[in-house]
C-alpha cells in the first residue's frame, strides 16, 4: 500500500492511494483458503474444491469486501501519518471503471481521497471568566395565576335543574351508538361518557348538535368524519349517532381552596402553593440558565477566530435554510432579498460551527463525557415523542451512528457549558420577570466531528 499526500491547502487535504493488485490477489487467496474447508460443493469432498473454482464462485464478492477493508486501512494510514482529524466523511475519487477492473484482477486499486480537516486552535482559558446570571424572585401573583389555571383545569360540575337546557361549557353524560349506512361500527358506542360542550374533544359537529338538550332526552345526530381521521375505515364517511342524555351539569366556579389541593393529592392549600412555587422557580431557573448560556456562547464566539471547514458550514447552512423555507417569514425577513437572507443565515451557520468546534475542544481538554444514563433518558424521551417503541429507536441508532451523534451532541454541549459555569465566576443580577422571560435568541452550536 502506497499513500502519498498530493496537496494541502487551508483545511483541504488530498491523498493518492495505490494498493497493488498482487497484494489484493494474495489476500483473496488467503481468504479463500480460510473458507475452503467450510464450503460444501457438489462433486467435491469438503475442503477439496480447487482454489480456482472457489475464486470463480466467490471471488468477486470477497474482493469487494477486501476493497472496502483496504480503503479503510488506507484512510487510517493517511490521516494517522499526516496527524489530521477529518471534519466530515472523506470523499474517494476513482477513475471510471477502475473498481470493475480491480474486482476482475486486472488493475491496481488506485484512487484519490479528498478530505476537509478540523482546524488547530487553542481555546481560551475558562478559569476566571466572569458572567452575570439574571435572576428574579417569584412574585405571589405568579403563583396565584398558576393556582387559578389549575383550578380551571380541574373544573367540578353540578347537575342543572330538571329540564334545564345544555349550554356551551356544560358537561353531559351520554350513551351513544354510532352507525354508518344504518349499521353500528366498531368503536362507535359508549355508555355514560362525559363530554364538555365546546371542548372540541369529539369530531366536528358532534358537540354543537347537543346544545339545548335536556337530561333524559334522546336524539339522533348526523356528522361526517374528517378526511384525515385516524381510522381509515371511517375517514370521510357520514355517520349517525343515537344519543341518550343522562345528565346535564353546569361548571362550578373555580375555587382555590383546601378541597382543590386534596383532590390533587395534597394535604392542604399551603402544600399546593409550595409545590406550585417550586415549579415556577424551576421555570425561572431554566430561563435564567438560557440567558447565562447565551452570554457564554457570545463570549466564546467573540474570543475565537479560525478557519472553518467549508463542508461543515455548508451542511449547517443547508439545514438552517431548509427550515427557513418551510416556515412563514417574519416581518423583518420579508423585507430582505433572498440573497441578503442567505448571507444572514450563513453567518449563523458559521457561528454554530465555530461554537461547536470550540465547545468540543474545551470538552476534550476537560475530559467531559455524557453518562450512558443521560443518553438513554434522551433516547427514551425521543421514542415517547415519536410514539414508537424504545427498542425500535435503539435499533435504528445502532444502524445510524450519525443520528446517535445528533442526540449526543446537545447533551455533550450542555455538559461543557456546566463545566464552564463551574470554573467561571458567576454573580447574580436581579431583573424584572419580563426581562427574564424574554427569548435570549439562543442558536445551538453545530455538532462537531468526533
TrEMBL record:
Domain PPIase FKBP-type: 169-251
Chief place where the protein resides: cytoplasm
Domain text: Consists of 3 domains; the N-terminus binds the ribosome, the middle domain has PPIase activity, while the C-terminus has intrinsic chaperone activity on its own.
Identification of the protein by name: Trigger factor
Keyword Isomerase in record: yes
Catalyzed reaction equations: [protein]-peptidylproline (omega=180) = [protein]-peptidylproline (omega=0)
Location of the protein in the cell: Cytoplasm
Lineage of source species: Bacteria, Pseudomonadati, Pseudomonadota, Alphaproteobacteria, Parvularculales
Function in brief: Involved in protein export. Acts as a chaperone by maintaining the newly synthesized protein in an open conformation. Functions as a peptidyl-prolyl cis-trans isomerase.
Catalytic activity, EC: 5.2.1.8
Similarity comment text for this entry: Belongs to the FKBP-type PPIase family. Tig subfamily.
Organism: Parvularcula bermudensis (strain ATCC BAA-594 / HTCC2503 / KCTC 12087)
GO biological process, one term: cell division
Start-end of Basic and acidic residues biased regions: 430-440
GO terms, molecular function: peptidyl-prolyl cis-trans isomerase activity
Amino acid at each position: 500500500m502506497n499513500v502519498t499526500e498530493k496537496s494541502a491547502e487551508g483545511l483541504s487535504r488530498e491523498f493518492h492511494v495505490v494498493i497493488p493488485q498482487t497484494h489484493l490477489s494474495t489476500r483473496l487467496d488467503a481468504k479463500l483458503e480460510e473458507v475452503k474447508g467450510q464450503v460444501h460443493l457438489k462433486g467435491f469432498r469438503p475442503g477439496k474444491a480447487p482454489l480456482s473454482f472457489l475464486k470463480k464462485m466467490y471471488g468477486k464478492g470477497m474482493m469487494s469486501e477486501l476493497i472496502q477493508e483496504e480503503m479503510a486501512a488506507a484512510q487510517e494510514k493517511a490521516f494517522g501519518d499526516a496527524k489530521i482529524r477529518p471534519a466530515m466523511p472523506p470523499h474517494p475519487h476513482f477513475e471510471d471503471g477502475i473498481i470493475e477492473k480491480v474486482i476482475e484482477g486486472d488493475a491496481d486499486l488506485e484512487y484519490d481521497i479528498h478530505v476537509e480537516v478540523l482546524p488547530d486552535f487553542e481555546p481560551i482559558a475558562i478559569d476566571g471568566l466572569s458572567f452575570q446570571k439574571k435572576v428574579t424572585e417569584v412574585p405571589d401573583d405568579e403563583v396565584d395565576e398558576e393556582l387559578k389555571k389549575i383550578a380551571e383545569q380541574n373544573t367540578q360540575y353540578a347537575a342543572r335543574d330538571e329540564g334545564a337546557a345544555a349550554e356551551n361549557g356544560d358537561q353531559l353524560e351520554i350513551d351513544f351508538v354510532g352507525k354508518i349506512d344504518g349499521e353500528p361500527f366498531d368503536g362507535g358506542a359508549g355508555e355514560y361518557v362525559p363530554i364538555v360542550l365546546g371542548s372540541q374533544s369529539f369530531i366536528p359537529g358532534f358537540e354543537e348538535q347537543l346544545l339545548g338538550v335536556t337530561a333524559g332526552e334522546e336524539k339522533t345526530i348526523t356528522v361526517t368524519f374528517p378526511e384525515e381521521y385516524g381510522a381509515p375505515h371511517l375517514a370521510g364517511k357520514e355517520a349517525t349517532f343515537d344519543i341518550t342524555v343522562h345528565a346535564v351539569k353546569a361548571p362550578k366556579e373555580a375555587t382555590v381552596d383546601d378541597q382543590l389541593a386534596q383532590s390533587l393529592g395534597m394535604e392542604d392549600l399551603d402544600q399546593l402553593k409550595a409545590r406550585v412555587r417550586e415549579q415556577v422557580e424551576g421555570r425561572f431557573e431554566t430561563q435564567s440558565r438560557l440567558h447565562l448560556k447565551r452570554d457564554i456562547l457570545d463570549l466564546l464566539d467573540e474570543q475565537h477566530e479560525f478557519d472553518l471547514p467549508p463542508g461543515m458550514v455548508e451542511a449547517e447552512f443547508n439545514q438552517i435554510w431548509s427550515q427557513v423555507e418551510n416556515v412563514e417569514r417574519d416581518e423583518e425577513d420579508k423585507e430582505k432579498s433572498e440573497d441578503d437572507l442567505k448571507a444572514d443565515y450563513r453567518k449563523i451557520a458559521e457561528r454554530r460551527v465555530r461554537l461547536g468546534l470550540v465547545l468540543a475542544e474545551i470538552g476534550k481538554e476537560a475530559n467531559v463525557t455524557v453518562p450512558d444514563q443521560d443518553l438513554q433518558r434522551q433516547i427514551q424521551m425521543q421514542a415517547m415523542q415519536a410514539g414508537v417503541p424504545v427498542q425500535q429507536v435503539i435499533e435504528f441508532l445502532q444502524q445510524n451512528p450519525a443520528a446517535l451523534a445528533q442526540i449526543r451532541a446537545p447533551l455533550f454541549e450542555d455538559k461543557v457549558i456546566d463545566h464552564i459555569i463551574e470554573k467561571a465566576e458567576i454573580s447574580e443580577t436581579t431583573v424584572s420577570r419580563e426581562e427574564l422571560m424574554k427569548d435570549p435568541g439562543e442558536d445551538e452550536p453545530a455538532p462537531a466531528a468526533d
